[in-house]
Amino acid sequence: VRFERMECEVLVIGSGPGGATTACMLAEQGMDVILLEEGSNHSVDSAPSYSLAEMNQKYRNGGLTPALGRTKVTYIEGRCVGGASEINAALYHRPLATTLKEWQLRFQIDDFDPAGMDRWFDEVEAEIGVAPQPNGVGPASELLKKGARKLGWKTTEIQRFWQYQKQKDGTVQGRRRSMSETMIPRAVAAGCRLLPDSRVVRLQMDGPTARSATAIRQPVGGEATRLDLRFQHVFVCGGAVQTPALLRRSGLKQNIGDSLRMHPMIRIAARFDDAFNDPSWGVPVEQVEEFKPRMTLGCSHSSLPHIALWLAGEVEGKLDRLEQWQNIAVFYVAVTGTGTGSVRNLPGFTDPLVRYPLTDEDLAMLGEGLDKLGHLVFEAGAREIYSPVDGLAPVTHPRGLAQYRTGLPTRGVNVTTIHLFSSVPMGQDPRRCAADSWGQLHGVKNVWVNDSALLPDTPGVNPQGTVLAIARRNASHFLERRGA
Ligand SMILES: Cc1cc2nc3c(=O)[nH]c(=O)nc-3n(C[C@H](O)[C@H](O)[C@H](O)COP(=O)(O)OP(=O)(O)OC[C@H]3O[C@@H](n4cnc5c(N)ncnc54)[C@H](O)[C@@H]3O)c2cc1C
User: Fold this and answer.
1) What tens digit of pLDDT does each residue of 130-141 get?
2) Of the listed 375, 397, 419, 442, which one is catalytic?
């Protein structure tokens, strides 16, 4: 193993929305920044969206990792330059003002008034760019709208981090506004050094001060280099699972990795009479507003491999159904989980052990959501719904949905999550917060967190917008305080 020593003013660990924003803002103010990323540096169109090649390039563990508990919840993390912004559905939301107000009061977060936060969301929208789809919402979203309308529920089109441009031939081409397309090239242009394929193993602490970081740089098929990184300040932005794992490996444990929160999700596949499904529409953008922030109903990307994945394993005649995949779409329910999970390291293992006890309330909400979603898709014309519970036969009539309302079993339910938070919660309340109102770890001189781990609770909406806005606010505060 080769050895290399590097120095910088600020080390940023992880290049997802939190880390990329931090590195860009600090570099553009003239600071000497290194942005270190465990995953590789791929262009945004290096692999087709939702393909196996993309999963191998840009996902941690090639896709799903299990969180342990009575009911297993599988979670998905990005691992590449740009983090999950490179692979996600890119749906953009501002959180409700009531959610921010509640966080401000409950976690004692200074200067976190919802009206004051508008400035940071305005900046996110202006600097990264969000837009509605230019040619309508697509066939699967139209079905969601139809079913919701019949039930008297409101739906809206959710804007995405996407940019559309009219071509010479009159067609419109869209491009993802991920971190590798926005904040990271800006950071690099401002002098930030980007180091992909480099995983930080731990921070070396000297009392309350972090002195250096040890990392291993190993490009795919290349030689390993051990990096000794010296800095004045370090921002840990590895996401809600990896950030607490790294801090705990470094001996920093106070309120860290004890309060993981999430939005658990459950999906159904539904078959209709007509062949409407056209995956070239990409991610369906319509959501039911009626039950937010507690519960969101929507439609997922529905390519053939996805339908195969979400058809419950037990469905009889599954292959025959798959022949009709263009008559099928996948729909989801996401709820604001009420459980509190943990992140711990196990000796000898690279990946941390993640526990999340899906509560009875979570299961009841998911069951209630499935019942609602089932009614919606039947109203939209569905003939058959494939259950996310192992062993349950397809539902062919709304009457069959009652089995969900009376509660889901604790085992054999296919629950996933793509929204994780709160493992290093921010705020002045020392009993439950790990970092202060600006992301600096309590009791530590030069370690900040600036990613989804800081959100003190579930936002109840797609979170990337909130992660970006809070990261901007905190990076700006860091720069102001340094200038003072
Ligand atoms: C499949 C999927 C779909 C989603 N869809 C949406 C959506 O439509 N809208 C929305 O708002 N949100 C969505 N999200 C959630 C959103 O992407 C995340 O909330 C957001 O990316 C979190 O940003 P982050 O900066 O906290 O971390 P991440 O995006 O997770 O980035 C962290 C980065 O740090 C790196 N890292 C971790 N540990 C280390 C280490 N020790 N050393 C070096 N590097 C390290 C990781 O490799 C990773 O690249 C989705 C997420 C997924 C996975």
Assistant:
1) 999 998 899 999
2) 419
DSSP3 helix / strand / coil % (the chain, rounded to 5)? 30, 25, 40
Segment 213-239 shows an average pLDDT of 97
C-beta neighbour count of 354 within 10 angstroms: 25
- What pLDDT is attached to residue 61? 83
**What are the tokens at 258?**
């004890």
**What is 197-248 written as a DSSP string?**
SEEEEEEEEETTEEEEEEEEE--TTS--EEEEEE-SEEEE-SHHHHHHHHHH
Residue nearest ligand 1's atom 9 by CA: 91
**CA 317 to centroid of ligand 1, rounded, Å:** 37
Q: List the end-to-end C-alpha distance of the chain, in Å, as a whole number.
A: 43
300 neighbors 331 (Cβ within 8 angstroms): yes
> What confidence tens digit (pLDDT) does each residue in 154-186 have?
999 999 999 999 899 988 889 999 999 999 999
> Which protein residue has the closest C-alpha to ligand 1 atom 3?
88
Token look-up 């996948």 returns: 330
- Bridging pattern class, strands 33-36 and 193-195: parallel
Q: Give the pair of three-digit tokens for residue 269.
A: 């596949």
pLDDT at residue 312 in the model: 63
**pLDDT beyond 90 at 301:** no
> Could you tell me the sign of the dihedral formed by the alpha carbons of 87, 462, 341, 472, in that order?
positive
Say how many Å lie between the CA of residue 78 and the centre of ligand 1. 5
What atom of ligand 1 comes closest to residue 19's alpha carbon?
25
Name residues contacting ligand 1 (CB within 6 A): 13-19, 36-39, 76-80, 83-85, 87-91, 199-200, 237-239, 242, 246, 418-419, 451-452, 462-465, 467
Residue 244 CA, ligand 1 centroid: distance in Å: 14
**Secondary structure class of 92 (helix, strand, coil):** coil
Q: Do 388 and 268 form a contact (C-beta atoms < 8 A)?
A: yes
E strand or H helix at 148? helix 139-151
Q: Is the pLDDT of residue 225 over 90?
A: yes
Residue to mutate (ligand 1; options 81, 94, 199, 464; most atoms within 8 A of CB): 464
Q: Residue 31: left if φ>0, alpha if ψ -120 to 50, beta else—which one?
A: beta
- Told to judge if 42 belongs to the known catalytic residues of this protein, a careful annotator would answer no
Overall average pLDDT of the 433-455 stretch: 98
> For residue 180, what pLDDT is reported?
98
Q: What is the number of the ligand 1 atom nearest to the C-alpha of 198?
A: 43
The β-bridge partners of 421 are: 261
